[in-house]
Request: fold
Amino acid sequence: MILQKTKTLALAAMLCVASPLGAGASCAQPEGAGTLQAGLLEWINAQRSEHGLAGLKPNRALSNAAMAHACDMAVRGYFSHQRPGGPDLKARLKAVGYGLRKAGENIAYSRQAKVSSAAEIWRNSPPHWKTIISPDYKDIGIAIAVSDEGRVYWVMDVGK
Reply:
């Protein structure tokens, strides 16, 4: 039990990052965001294991990119893989220093900050599910942000 809790807290620390929006902008995260991110990673890796795939490993650059995108959506009030007029996924990943050969992204939003919310959305969406069980990825970054209106944004960036 202590080892599992320590492992979860270590994952939470690796997945959490400060707000990337700079001075003057605020990005809220729900209480226990790190634990939620670690829980979602555990769920994703369990799904991959059921399909004979290796687990994805947390990557700080991908976590930074995911957090920046989750915060951007929460603060600006949009829901898309690309902010209108903004950079696409590959440009965002290169901007945080992730040297990629292949990249993917899942996004979700809900009113509840629960792992089951994002998991259910992604499990029931064929393109999102395909990203989760793709053998093409080895690294992951997960982020969660909350808008002033209470909308919870989840972002999962994966790469190789």
About this structure: Strands lie at 57-58, 103-110, 139-146, 152-159. The two ends are 32 Å apart (CA to CA). Residues 1-24 have pLDDT under 50 and may be disordered.
